[in-house]
Amino acid sequence: MSRSIDLLPRVAIFLAGIAAGVLTGARRERGGMDPAALKGLKDSLGGLENRLAAQEAASANRFTQIETRLDEHATKLADVPSTTQIVAAMEQLLSKTMSSLDERLSTQAHSIEVLKTTVSQTDSLLERVLESLDSLQTYTDPAELTGDLLLQRPA
Questions:
Q1: Considering the entire predicted model, what is its pTM?
Q2: In whole angstroms, what is the distance from residue 112 CA to residue 120 CA?
Q3: Measured between alpha carbons, how far is 108 from 112 in angstroms, rounded to an integer?
Q4: pLDDT > 80? residue 133
């Protein structure tokens, strides 16, 4: 008997489920939904699906455009030299400029030394010429005096 008491709540729940199913089925058969409301609901659902598809297509189009631009930017970025390449090029240019400057300065220093030597030689030569003129002047001075005396004498 205790076994039959344990089965009683289970049987009651089963019978309540059957009764609920019968009542729900009867209600569906009886009233259901209004056909116009059902058509309106289907139309709304179709419109929603169309808008969702259009939004999805627009999003896919936009993503395609973005991916294209990203590819273009990646290509342009690949063409731009890196910082190390720019620094290396600048170092090379600076090195060439400095070596050219060193070469020009060396050439100018050599020119200055040659000019100093030339000026020194010119000074020495000029000094000798002046000394020679001086010595010639001392030799010609007594003759000029005698020549002047001859000219001053009454004839």
A1: 0.39
A2: 12
A3: 6
A4: yes
